[in-house]
Amino acid sequence: MSDQNKVNGNSKNEQLEQYRADDKGKKLTTNQGLKVAEDEFSLKAGERGPTLMEDFHFREKMTHFDHERIPERIVHARGFAAHGEFELYESLSEFTKADFLNDTSKKTPTFVRFSTVAGSRGSAETVRDARGFATKFYTEEGNYDLVGNNIPVFFIQDAIKFPDLVHALKPEPHNEMPQAASAHDTFWDFVANNQESAHMVMWAMSDRAIPRSFRMMEGFGVHTFRLVNDEGKAHFVKFHWKPVLGTHSLVWDEAQKISGKDPDFHRRDLWESIENGDYPEYELGLQIIAEEDEFNFDFDILDPTKLWPEEDVPVKIVGKMTLNRNVDNVFAETEQVAFHPGHVVPGIDFSNDPLLQGRLFSYTDTQLSRLGGPNFHELPINRPVCPFHNNQRDGISRHTINRGQVSYHKNSLAANTPSPTPEAEGGYVHYQEKVDGRKIRGRSESFKDHFSQATLFWNSMSEPEKQHLKNAFSFELGKVKSKSVQQQVVDMFGNVSVELATAFAEAIDAVPPQGEESSVTKSSPALSQLNTVKSPKTRKVGVIVGSIVSGEVADILQTLKSSGIQGECISDKLGRRTTDDGSELEIMHTFLTATSVIFDAIYVVGGSDDATFKKNALHFVNEAYAHYKPIGGTHEGLQWLNEAELTGEPGVVSGDGKDDFVKNFTEAISVHRHWNRQV
User: Fold this and answer.
1) Who's near 186: CB < 8 A, 6+ residues apart?
2) How many whole angstroms separate alpha carbon 76 and alpha carbon 558?
3) pLDDT of residue 303
4) Is residue 92 part of a domain?
5) Among 76, 223, 377, 672, the one annotated catalytic
6) Per the database record, which ranges form the Catalase core domain (predicted)?
């Protein structure tokens, strides 16, 4: 791209165009462009003789295959991504000089990678884990990376402990188990002996760690950053992504079953949503604290194990990101994308959060290992949309062909170019924070409160969410073999909630905590998913139909579709069903290829007198009921719900009147889960 090119919503797409290749209809060649006459047989000395070393085509093809895999990320290995664009609602010039946060007329291209943390690249996606939510903004001033998670806090306060955390969280080295799970001794031993993890563990044991989809989970920058305006005035900031569809989760039994039925569940959901035009949307929110108010809170605002309660520091919604294009190639884009919290633009700077400070080193270091050298910024997915010029040269995978004899600064042979840009013209200058202190290995006394915000989180949960926390601790610690570790965790979380610790202590045959309940009574309603947005849009309903179908069913599905609800028909065989009025329904799933856990709701129509069909249908219904999902029944399905004694239960909608049924079923789907149901 020339220096004169302007950045817009399509510019990154246009830039990538030169790297895209469509081989359909083309002739086979080597990587050097030589046309290949034979690709089935290697070159041999006679039909039954040895393969010859001179077979350059075989050697090129096999060598490339042998090197197709690059080292997977140590954490966040299992990921999926999409392209999008960001639009600003209002100028933030009062707080920052970052151009993409000032000009409301621009659409900034983005690339977002979602991921699990603990598992390998081939692990399942619905495991209990934190999720990565990393966003690359391709701005006119350079790439800005907001590298966050779906949980606003972290396990540790200082980056020097990160290798210890990951070693404890990963499969145990003596037997390489368990994969993508925290239900084992070394993780909980780390937790019990590093009690700063208490708050993050509460989030990890909550519903937030098993999101319904990438489209329905929040994103957080985790750390405290700085915004700096044109006058050099700074504010502390935390970044939030708020999903327009609300924040929703799976239930644990459902999450485990999906891991077996469809380990690609989350990436499939994201891919299909974009392909269907149901573009995921997230609003960008900022929590902003003036520098002079840094010490006005009952927590240290630089502590990465602490959040800023939204009731104390409101979230200012400033823009929206829409993911509107799937990747063309997962390896070239999703796997090779390189994020770094140190990729900033003028107007965004760092705080002294010790975990953030360590990440500023670690991310470059890991990209050097994964991507083979210092030129990872030249890969198409990582290239800025603005021009870049410097005196860096050579190295593995260098794409740029630099001309001229000069590659140093200062110089006279090239009129001292490339030359620095003054701050007034957009050059990046670090915020001039005054620093005064002795060199010390330690942390502030204000970082030593490990339990009050963990209790705040507990206090903020609804009763169903509290029960899920009790169940999660009971499950995870029930897998721990060491009785000592189990007891240490019980004693630790007695400092958070005696009620919680007593519940899982009894479940694992440990001694309940002997202390009193925490004196912390504060809560934050924003932390409970009970208070999230509830919408029927993009919800997927499994529709069970037999061979005899009323034409009214097609009308019902069309009306549901007008509310954004996607109906997919299930039967004993694939194909098409003709209704009694001549319309057709496509059967997309059978009882063998589908399961209730991949749907948000079940609508049973019936239309078969086969006993096995009815048995399979009721299995779907009963499992969905146990997962608190909406259930609808009309026609023969209504009779089946009556026989199962489910009609009248919360979230179970039945009726013969089409309009009333659709209205009530849509409302039930909007609620997402019916926790007041007795299961």
Assistant:
1) 167, 168, 169, 172
2) 40
3) 97
4) yes
5) 76
6) 29-417
Contact 117, 174 (CB under 8 A): no
Residue 565 covered by a domain: yes
Please check whether residues 345 and 253 belong to one and the same domain.
Answer: yes
Is position 149 annotated as part of the catalytic site? yes
Same domain, 507 and 597: no
How high does pLDDT run on average in the chain? Answer: 94
C-alpha angle with apex 257: 662 to 507, nearest 5 degrees? 110
Q: Are 315 and 242 in contact (CB under 8 A)?
A: yes
| pLDDT given for residue 10 in this prediction | 67
- For residue 528 the two structure tokens come to 């409970």
Residues 454 and 507 in one domain: yes
Cα gap 317→88, rounded to integer Å: 10
Q: For residue 108, what pLDDT band results from cuts at 50, 70 and 90? A: very high
pLDDT at 295 over 80: yes
Instruction: State yes or no: cis peptide before 178, omega within 30 of 0.
Output: yes
- Given pLDDT bands bounded at 50, 70 and 90, which one contains residue 16? confident
Q: Which two tokens stand for residue 457?
A: 């989180």
Q: Is 619 a catalytic residue?
A: no
Query: Rounded to an integer, what distance in angstroms lies between the CA atom of residue 163 and that of residue 161?
Result: 6
- SS3 category, 51: strand
Closest CA to 132 of 249, 214, 240, 242: 214
Closest-CA residue to 255 (of 475, 408, 38): 475
The pTM assigned to this predicted structure is 0.94
Is the pLDDT confidence value at 7 over 60?
A: no
Provide the token pair at 309.
């309660």
DSSP 271-282: HHHHHTT---EE
575: left (phi over 0), alpha (psi -120 to 50) or beta: left
Residue ending a domain, among 340, 355, 378, is 378
Q: What residues make up the domain containing 87?
A: 79-153+209-378
Contact 274, 168 (CB under 8 A): no
- pLDDT, one tens digit per residue, over 176-205 is 999 999 999 999 999 999 999 999 999 999
In terms of domains, do 143 and 255 share one?
yes
* Residue written as token pair 């039954």: 48
Q: Report how far residue 43's alpha carbon sits from residue 38's, in angstroms, rounded to the nearest whole number.
A: 10
Residue 5 banded pLDDT, cuts 50, 70, 90: very low
Residue 437: inside a domain, yes or no?
no
pLDDT digits (tens, 9 = 90+) for 123-142: 999 999 999 999 999 999 99
Inter-CA distances, 166 with 149, 159, 208, Å: 16, 11, 20
Q: Looking at 83, 102, 143, 149, which residue is catalytic?
A: 149
Instruction: Please check whether residue 321 is in contact with residue 241, taking contact to mean a CB–CB distance below 8 angstroms.
Output: yes
What are the structure tokens assigned to 592, written together? Answer: 């063998």
Pairing of strands 234-243, 281-290: antiparallel
Task: Specify if 676 maps to a domain.
Answer: no
Name the domain boundary from 462, 496, 530: 530
| Domain identity same for 465 and 592 | no
